[in-house]
TrEMBL record:
It comes from the Bacteria. It holds the Pfam family TctB. It comes from Yanshouia hominis. Residues 16-150 form the DUF1468 domain. InterPro entries: DUF1468. This is Tripartite tricarboxylate transporter TctB family protein. The chain crosses the membrane at residues 41-60, 76-93, 99-115, 127-148. Keywords: Membrane, Transmembrane, Transmembrane helix.
Length: 150
């Protein structure tokens, strides 16, 4: 597939997903008594960002001439691994209702598997450090700012 066609497809898919998330975000409250910023704001802002950025990307890609570059996925197994793992994590989270232990294990596993460095202490420390930062930011954003219990 040409790079231009792949880009147009990806931007179109992002636009549709942004619209879907925006529509579903109206089910979440935007504010409640004692809470100025409710849980509905985050998905709404994120979906608007997806919509705007995909429209800009579609416009830019549509104006560019097709230069004949081809898109090649060098390790398609990694794509299916991440997609499958994401579905598994979502299913386990839905069944157990305990987000953070699952997110920590999933993030550690994916960072370890997808990191091409040879196994070493440096790789382990880097994986643990990035996991702590990512889960910390998620916890801060959802638990402290949006006051959601994941």
């Amino acid at each position: 597939m040409s790079f231009k066609k792949a880009s147009l497809f990806a931007f179109s898919l992002t636009f549709v997903l942004g619209l879907l998330f925006f529509a579903f975000s109206f089910k979440l409250p935007t504010s409640t008594p004692g809470m100025v910023v409710g849980p509905g704001y985050y998905p709404r802002v994120l979906s608007l960002f997806l919509i705007v950025s995909s429209v800009i990307g579609l416009y830019v890609q549509a104006r560019k001439p097709d230069d004949g570059k081809r898109v090649e996925i060098k390790k398609p197994l990694y794509l299916f691994l991440v997609l499958g793992f994401s579905v598994l994590v979502a299913g386990v989270w839905h069944a157990t209702r305990s987000f953070y232990p699952i997110a920590i294990v999933a993030t550690l596993t994916l960072l370890w598997v997808l990191n091409p460095e040879p196994t070493s202490r440096k790789k382990a420390l880097k994986t643990v450090g990035i996991t702590i930062v990512l889960i910390g930011v998620i916890c801060l954003l959802f638990t402290v700012v949006l006051q959601l219990n994941l």
